Amino acid sequence: MTAVVMPAAHGWRLAAAAAVVALALAASSPSTAQDGPAGIATPTVLPPFNPDAPACSPPPGLSPALVFLQDNEREFIQGVGRGLADAARDRGLSYEVARADNDSARMVAQAKDALARKVGAVVVAPIDPRAMTRPLQALIWTGTYVGAVVPPPATTILNAPQYETGKVLGDAAAAYIEEELGGTARVVLLTHDSNQFLAPRFVAMRDALARVPGATIVADISPATVNEDGGYATMKTILVAHNTVDVVLGADTVVLGALKALREAGKDRPDQFLGGIDGEPEAVAEIKAGGPYKASVSLASPVFGYAMGQHAADWLAGKSIPQAMDILPRALNAENIAAYEADLADPGAVYADPARRDSYLRMYGNICYDTRDQYLNFPWSSERRG
C-alpha cells in the first residue's frame, strides 16, 4: 500500500479556502501550484471494502444535494441518472442534472458552479478527464463527495474490469463465428482506444478474435463521438470500402448506430453478429426481437448509479464508504434478460438485497470525510496487480 501523509486540521481549512480562490482566479492567473493533497497518485491495490469501518465526521457547511455532471444523453448515462435520482429520493437529497452535451468547457464551468454553491455530492461522467482534474480536486478538498465513472480523481471511482468486460463480448463473438459462420468473418471494431481507461476491453476483443484464424478485422476505428450518431457515420464510411460485414463489436450506443447504417444500406442480415457493451435498453430490445443484434454485456448503470447515490448520502452522514467499485460484466441472453430488466427497473431493491447487489457490484477500500486526502488520483482498476 502507498503511504499517505494526513494533513493537520488547519491545513484542510486552508486547502478548502484556497480551492475556492484558485478556481475563481484560474481564468486570469493560471497556476500549477498545489492547493490541497494530491491524493493517492501511485497505482495501489485496494483491499476489500469494510462495511464495519468506524464512522467519522460529516462534512460541515455543505448542502444535502447531489448533482450529476452528465456528459451526454446516451442511454447508458441516462441509466446512471435514474439510479442516482432514485437514491437521492430514498435518502432525502435534492437532485439535479447538469448536462454538458459533450462540451468539456461547459462541464468544467458546471463543476465550478457546484463548488461555489457548496454542493454536498457530485457524480461525474467526464468528457475530458484532464480538463476536469483541477475542478474535481477542488470539490474533494472542500469535502464534497465526488463519484467518478471511470477516470480519476474521485472520492469513489466506478470502473469495470475492462479486459474481462471485453473478453466476455469477444469470446461470444468468436464462438459465434466458429459455430454459425463456418469460422470465417469480416469484423468491424468500433473502439474507444483514445480513452486509456477503456482501451483494455478492445485489447481483449482482439485477443479473442485472434484465436479464430478466419476472423479478419477489416476496420478497427474509434468513432468521432461515442453515441449512435458516431457509430452511424463511421459505419457508413466503412461500407464504402467493405461491401460485406459479418461482425460488429463496440459499445452498445455506437453499435446501434452502425446497425442503423447497415439497415439503410440494405446490408443487415439475420446471421450477422452485432454485439455491444453496456446493456442499453435499445440493444436489449434488438436482442429480444431477433436479428443481427446477438449480444450485449451488461454494466447495469442504474444499479451502480443507485449505489453511488447511497454512498453520497452515507458520506454526508459521516460514514465510511468505498474508494472504488467494480460493476461486474454479464452477458445478456434470452434466458436472463427478463430478470435483468426487472433489476434495472428497481435498483433500490437490488441494493437492499446483498446477494443480488454482489452479483453486480464489488467494492474496495475505505474513505470518509476525515480521510479524504486518500482520494484516488490514478486510473484505478481491480485488474491491476501492483
Largest sheet: 7 strands, mixed
Mean pLDDT: 90
What is the number of strand segments?
13
Order of strands across the main sheet: 2-1-3-4-5-11-13
Work out the oligomeric state of the chains in this entry.
single chain
The CATH topology name of the largest domain reads Rossmann fold
Structural class: alpha/beta
CATH class of the largest domain: Alpha Beta
Query: How much of the polypeptide forms β-strand, as a percent range?
Result: 15-25%
CATH superfamily of the largest domain: Response regulator
Note the gap between the termini. 9 Å
The rough form would be described as: elongated
Description:
- The chain is an alpha/beta fold.
- The chain has 2 domains: 9-159 and 301-327 and 356-374, Response regulator (Rossmann fold, 3-Layer(aba) Sandwich); 162-298, Rossmann fold (3-Layer(aba) Sandwich), CATH 3.40.50.
- Helix content is 43%, strand content 18%.
- The chain is built from 13 helices and 13 strands.
- The strands form 2 sheets. The chain has a 7-stranded mixed β-sheet, sandwiched between helices.
- Helix 6 links the parallel strand 6 (185-190) and strand 7.
- It starts with 8 loop residues before the first helix and ends in a 22-residue tail after the last strand.
- Mean pLDDT is 90; it is low at 1-33.
Tell me briefly what this model is:
The chain is α/β, with parallel strands linked by helices. It contains 13 helices and 13 strands.
